[in-house]
Amino acid sequence: MSNYPSGIIFTEDNPGKWEGKATGHLPSVTVDGGKVTVKTDHVMTKAHFIVRHTIVSADGVMVGDKTFSPDDADAVSEFELPSDTSGKLYVTSFCNQHDLWLVEVEL
Length: 107
Ligand SMILES: [Fe+2]
Fold this sequence. Notes:
The protein has no helices and eight strands. It has 107 residues and is an all-beta fold. It has a single domain (9-106), classed as SOR catalytic domain (Immunoglobulin-like, Sandwich), CATH 2.60.40.730. A five-stranded mixed sheet has the order 1-8-7-4-5, with no helix packed on it. The chain has a three-stranded antiparallel sheet with strand order 2-3-6, with no helix packed on it. Strand 2 and strand 3 (35-40) form a beta hairpin. The radius of gyration is 13 Å and the shape is globular. The mean pLDDT is 95.
């Protein structure tokens, strides 16, 4: 998937040092027409929370991002895709304790 060393980006297939943490850190992605909903099923406390979601298109354009506060009830974000978006989306979710998780979604 990438040429980066392991331990930078964590995925379902490569959870690295966070073995067993994929559930609760991998973002779940729902695409409905041009609307994308991203959810990370994770606690939101001051000590431990989801910091940010991003969506990057296959051509490397960040088409959406949301930064969370630990006061947010849920790590859920919604985005409208540009109409010319096609191919893969790369969706990330960053935990303040368990780093950066990535899923790929085919449109
Ligand atoms: Fe976490």
